[in-house]
Design a protein that fits this description.
3-stranded antiparallel β-sheet, two-stranded antiparallel ribbon, globular, 6 helices, mainly alpha
Length: about 170
């Protein structure tokens, strides 16, 4: 996210965690160089949160972009794609999308830190105390931890099952 024209930023009080009502996407008002990239930004909005995609995933069939955190909602709803009648699955967004995101300059919505490129922004929100204090972020972290635990337990069960089948095979 590159830098050029800085939008008027809300006061520190209005950007406090208590006013963070979402954890998905990047609100355009926090993209410092949005005028420079406006036409591309419009094509990179998540259809769920309506913000610029954050940690974007892309449908393999219809190329719809979605935020990673918005994807968790789809995943919980067992919906393959947000686009009506599309049965595609999501994977990491294409290189072009990732390169455009890296050209943006972003201000942290929670703490107000300015001038971060996309990569630095992602690192920042993983450690920003105000961002992480958001109750919605805690829910996402809990879901991620539980999914990882389920994957680990599933793998253990599969391994134990395979070992049991090997041991039951007559010699």
């Amino acid at each position: 996210m590159s830098e050029n024209n800085y939008p008027e930023m809300p006061s520190e009080q209005s950007s406090s965690v208590s006013n963070l009502d979402r954890i998905c996407g990047i609100d355009e008002q926090f993209i410092e160089n949005k005028k420079e990239y406006q036409s591309l930004i419009n094509d990179m909005k998540c259809p769920m949160c309506l913000n610029v995609v954050c940690k974007p995933l892309e449908c393999k069939l219809c190329q719809t972009l979605i935020c990673e955190n918005c994807f968790f909602v789809l995943h919980l709803a067992e919906t393959p794609c947000i686009t009506q009648n599309c049965k595609g699955n999501y994977s990491k967004a294409n290189k072009f999308v990732r390169e455009i995101l890296c050209a943006l300059k972003i201000t942290c919505e929670a703490c107000g830190k300015k001038g971060m490129n996309y990569t630095d922004y992602l690192k920042h929100i993983d450690s920003c105390e105000q961002y992480l204090a958001n109750p919605l972020m805690k829910i996402i972290r809990d879901i991620n931890e539980r999914e990882e635990e389920i994957k680990k337990l599933t793998k253990e069960v599969e391994t134990a099952s395979e070992n049991a089948n090997v041991n039951l095979t007559p010699d």
